[in-house]
Write a structure and sequence with these properties.
By secondary structure, this protein is α/β, with parallel strands linked by helices. Helix content is 34%, strand content 22%. It binds S-adenosyl-L-homocysteine, iron/sulfur cluster (SF4) and FE3-S4 cluster.
Length: 444
Amino acid sequence: MVEESAERKVYFKTFGCQMNEYDTGKMHAQLLRDGWAVTTDPADAQLIVVNTCSIREKAVDKMHSALGEYRRMKREGQDVVIGIAGCVAQERGDELYKKYRDVDLVFGPDGVPQIGKLVAEARQGRRVLDTEFLDLENYPFIQDIDPSAHGVGSFVTIQKGCDNKCTFCIVPYTRGVEVSRPHQEILEEVRGLVARGVREITLIGQNVNSYGLKVDGELTFAQLLYAVAEVPGVDRIRYTTSHPRDMGDDVVQAYRDLPNLTSHLHLPVQSGSNKVLRRMKRYYTRERYMRVVDALREARPDIALSTDFIVGFNDEFEEDFEATMSLLNEVGFVGSFSFKYSPRPGTPALKIRNPVTPEEASRRLTVLQDRQRELSTDFNRSHEGRVVEVLVEGPSRHDEGVICGRTSSNVMVNFPGDASLIGSMVDVRVTRGFTHSCRGERVV
Ligand code: SAH
Ligand code: SF4
Ligand code: F3S
């Protein structure tokens, strides 16, 4: 049992997507109320929470190595409660609980709203395992604002879970069924964030386009965009993730109507082959995807598109991979996250024998990523000589006296300037484009 002290400190280690980052912020907010402060040094903490991701096996490996380190610290005498949260905890809670006797607390994403109670129990010396999904009626989305959300941009969750069953994906099993957060709560959080100086809101969910559809009287996703756009002080709105099947004309229309909706969309396609898309149960074809792209470009000619790809999925033959490469070129994605297919426990695709060897999958990934780097560099270079509007986010990570921010189309621009500009919108002339960012000079 850990002694009460005036200065109780919690250390968070967060893996995975925006959902987990956001959840960590919500845990932080709740623990703050109970008198906890956050530390950036695990050796200084009385509570360590590892917020885990199980999207690919590599993410799970990362959890094990982080955990190994914290458990060693505990073995060597640190008086600390160790908790495993997030998607691996949800998926393999039992196993982790049994395997790691020195871990005090294991809880899934639905444990986030109850973190205070769970931690209190664990600190009384009781080991806790909580992987029950909460009641869907009245799902308790946490309204407390993440205390560290004072930057320029912030996430706001609009739904939890996912009702799709893409055959490769573990998320429906780790996050449960889809629940839309009431729009009043979303708008209240947006207003709260704006009051703290946040200027860019990113709405997050696993399939934001299906927001509200299953709730009588709730706004649709497009209507939600208009409502958020109207909140005074919201200069930019982004959202992620969109599912191409559910991308409606009303959302496309929003790109005509809402100047603060940014000129960038992340629209995961996964594959350019209709056969593979069918096996993934994505429920769209390449042709449908291209129609969405064309409609978006008609509505917002400068829209920059990025995506996710999986290579080496079950029965992805060379010709299927080539279809993915041709789609990459046809759309001209400005960026993409690409992954080798990683079989996940409990998913439908696991049962199928995959003839693609790991070596072949690695080769395909390299080919794809090389081409993507070229496209990203071309895109960034196309800005050279142009003046762009940058929302300044903070100091550059690499250079003293240099600050950075992004354009509406999500291009990262570094330029000389001082911290007083953070949070403002400035005009910058781009002098050089690189693979991941641009360099520029402020125009005054
Ligand atoms: N909800 C989002 C994706 C969430 S997961 C959507 O539908 O697009 C983020 C990305 O991880 C996915 O787009 C996919 O490209 C990748 N991914 C998911 N499961 C995977 C797996 N088993 N192996 C490799 N990549 C995977
Ligand atoms: Fe996974 Fe598909 Fe849901 Fe995205 S839409 S989270 S890929 S099941
Ligand atoms: Fe990972 Fe869970 Fe997000 S599996 S990608 S942290 S929803």
